[in-house]
Amino acid sequence: MTAFASTSKAARAPRVTTTLLGRVRSGGLQYPLLEKVRAGLFPATRSTIRSASPPSLTPRLCRCLSAALLALLLTACAGLPSPVPRTLSTALTNTGDTAIGRAVAPMAAPHPGLSGFHPLTEGPDAFAARIALVQAAQLSVDLQYFIWHHDTTGLMLWEALWQAAERGVRVRVLLDDHHTVGQDALLAAMDAHPNIELRLFNPYVHRGFRTADLALDFSRVNRRMHNKSLTIDNQATIVGGRNVGDEYYGANQGVAFQDLDMLGIGPVVKDVSSEFDLYWNHDVVYPASTVLPPPAQDAMARVRAAWSRVHADPAAQIYINAARNTEVARRIAAHDLPFEWATARVVYDSPEKGRRTLKREELLVARLIELMGDPRKELDLVSPYFVPGKESTEMLIGFAKRGVKVRVLTNSLLATDVLPVHAGYSKYRLLLLQGGVQLYELKPQYTAQRWDAARALAKKLRGQEGREVLQDTTQVQFDDTDLDPASRPRSSLGLGLGSGGSAGSGSSIGSGSISASSLHAKTFGTDRRLLFVGSFNLDPRSEQLNTEMGVVIDSAAIAEEMTSLMDDVVPERAYEVRLQPDGRNLEWVERLPQGEQIWRVEPGSTAGKRLLMNVLQVLPIEWLL
């Protein structure tokens, strides 16, 4: 880790570094050679090209094409600026006298050395908890996320952070750069606030042409930060599987992710802060001001206009008001939210994983196996993206053969948002079932009734009966295409650079489609005592490529909740995958009020989709999944 002298963000001078192609400045990259090539290939007017005589046109095009080829080759040598001036900072420690600190102290006093946990299982509760805590912050807010969408919940959280900064709260935001496409102007505007600092993990060099990074620097940009946490005043933290976006908080009509976070207080908070500081100050993380172009003069005016459009949208307000009135929000405000007290360990990958392959003993997965122990009776695994690979498949079969009840819940074909991952998982199903592992695949849970009610209420509010009025809040946008969420591509194939996140490409509240749920929680339980909650999927990407984090909780009460879920709820909401009597083919059992429905062909599959999955299974892409 490189140490740099502390400098004020406001006083930071533009940094100019000479490269093969030109100059790298704190406001972004400038390539004079590429500008010359572009000027040659695209003259100011078409009439200039038309007036050129054929004898002179061919040599000119040859020179331009040669220059373009040279520029492309030299671009491979252009990398991120280094070293980067940054302010070293750590979590604030004298925060016991904050409002949250004073509320936590009497609750923690009877439980020395233990951490308190409250599960956030419902999306609106999870969003309400985040907003309530940010609004209560008095000294600091630290956020670390893989995805932050430009939609209703994403904009509302930015607004809450801005308001906190206006109160004098120090706000540190650490984002993975893969899903920030099209958000440079917004991020630069937020980073310009003197109390907000934004840093980007493993950022892309070519802001407007990221394909160049993928083509020429894939080994680097293929490694992403999948961690997720929010910590307030170093007194309360939220860790789990949720990113920031409508689909994670029940505000998206396209797909609603079924997810799990833990709201924690006590010693676990300091451990999460230590993880955040390690990443924040690591040299794989770059201050946004050294990567993004400087904000335009009217940047904040456009940000405020976007916030105003969200506040003016009845559909968005229905959701926001509902979230504010959840039981979790009310109990946080009243300081009487119940907590379960237990010992806990925060586990995480080193940020060094963002630039090189680590030894297995250095990985989160090794620490997780060590802490979760050797199951004696039960092992329950919930992973939306489940690609066990040969080694984990053998391990799970080994547990099952010695009498451990091994159950796995993942997404069904109908519920998954990443088809290649489902294809990668499906080739291990037969082996797992033959080895005694129980497999369940979540069915999509349709929720049309609540959206019918929302439409009716919105029409009443606007007085426009007979016309669809609920707006697609993913289209709440700025005036330029750089900030238009509809213009930003998202990874729908999921072949690399992350786990999921593509569901948000569907419309948000009120598009008229039926909402379906997709599993996104990552949690593992052993012997009704130990429970892991975090960002880690059981797939090669989480194990080897992305950085991950989570918390292992030693609590029979909390672990029992998961076991009860697997016992009572999962069989009704998931297909049970079983072997047919011949022991070589699969069947899917769907439990319905009128009895069991048995499918001999995978539900939701077509001949074309099955063919595509067969092709994906033989491609050498498992290491990317």
TrEMBL record:
GO terms for molecular function: phosphatidyltransferase activity. Residues 470-509 are annotated as: Disordered. Residues 495-509 have a biased composition (Gly residues). GO terms for biological process: cardiolipin biosynthetic process. Pfam families: PLDc_2. InterPro entries: PLD-like_dom, PLipase_D/transphosphatidylase. Residues 221-248, 515-542 form the PLD phosphodiesterase domain. CDD domains: PLDc_ymdC_like_1, PLDc_ymdC_like_2. PANTHER family: CARDIOLIPIN SYNTHASE, CARDIOLIPIN SYNTHASE C. This is Phospholipase D family protein. It comes from Acidovorax cavernicola.
